[in-house]
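A note from the maintainers: we've had questions about how concatenated examples are separated. There is no special marker in the raw files; a new sequence line simply starts the next protein. For clarity in this README we add a label.
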Amino acid sequence: MKNVALFESIRKPEALEYLKLSAKLLNSLGCSVIIDPKVTIDLDINEFGFINSLPTEEFGKIADLVISFGGDGTMLSAARQLIDSQVPIMGVNVGRLGFLAEYSVEDLESTIKDYVNGNYRLVERSVIETYINDERVFALNDIVLEKKGSSKLITVKAYSNGNHIGDYRADGLIVCTPTGSTAYSLSCGGPILSPSTQVLCLTPISPHTLTLRPLVLPDTIELTLIVNSSTGMVNFVCDGQVEYTIADGTSITIKKSESRIKLIKPLGSSYYDLLKAKLLWATDGSKK
């Protein structure tokens, strides 16, 4: 019997409906279904009495798979909460773009049956980490340092293994993984990085100097960033969800984590197919 956990974090009505449909289908296929107590309170016990209740942080103890219902933000939230487990995540897109959550709700029944029958591929994605206030924080997509409380630029001094890279005078600086290269970094002019590449990318946000451009570095380095702001404060944002205020002069050390995130992907499709479908990458505009 497969143990499948269902994850939904933002109490979105549409996501909850697809979660219910999936729970019934999984149960009919002989799978054990696990859901966080925060979600089960919205379910009719008479209709969903077969569901096991377990906090999200403990899914990794028994689950063979976690299915995330929402958008990419929900996927990132699930990944962060399951960072210390080895349980793979499948993203069902109930949002808009759905780059990480690439499975469509229209194909939900066939998607679940494919998983039960073993028709899928498993990929691993790298994660970066740092310490803030003695707390270790992780990012699957990116870590961003940005201005706070003022329209004035900030300066971020960047070092690779102690070697000075440069001083970024800009609205902020993005440190992204290959997975995150199609997120905030891309909108700031950063390159698309294949998920299998072992690199990080530094992408400045609206830099004041024309010579400051995205820089790709090996992910074996230890990256140190020292922030300077006229307001005395800088925003630190992890995956667009975890936010801290750090003081002027703070030094942040970022490196590739030993933790990895496992994702379930469809058979018969590649990363390039995803780029074409979601971002219209390499589309020939002359063809109708």
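[label: protein 2]
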Amino acid sequence: MLIIPAVDLKGGKCVRLIQGQKEREIVYGADPVESALHWAGQGARRLHLIDLDGAFEGAPRHLKVLEKVARTAGVPVQFGGGVRSLDSLRAVLDAGASFVILGTSALKNPAFLKEAAEENPGKILLGIDARDGEVRVSGWVEGDGVSPEALAARFEDLPLAGIVFTDISKDGMLEGFNPEATGALARAASVPVIAAGGFSRMEDVDKLLPLAADGVVGAVVGRALYEGTFDLKKALARV
């Protein structure tokens, strides 16, 4: 079971958006590379970098940060945000990402997701972000009524590395994650699932561990790490 620290990038800084809303931004550090190296030094075995500017603008904006983190952290990096073409995908991989998260493209351009996965087997993570059972895209501002399970089923034959599932209603709220929705998706999916959104205390780890039987292999933790409500070393020891 992986506990994966999140480093969210906006304007060159390490930030957190509450429920993905641009106007609800918290800045946690001017140097996101320093933040990433700190979590790697704490024992994290993978890092989660999200280019928020890229997600809103449609193309990655923090490739230099990714390159520095990938070169110096010594652990695999999963990167997402604005990767919506083969050129941008290749640029992200060339910058050092071990895994690339594709979310918006899964709904808007499924042919791209298929081509990306087949060209890069085992390196593409399908990002499924949902609120109230509906998948949301384009920085979480758009949705079209598709359920997480239905979206995962569309791509079950692709050689994906897994799914990163975010419950938007929980994201950044420090209110605990959604084990029911996460478990339901994991049972329906044919690839491993990484949970995200709401992890804030050790009790969330206790709720996460039983989901291993359903195919959940880890969790992304963000705001709670930066605000000190979640101890990474203790969580890593627990899992």
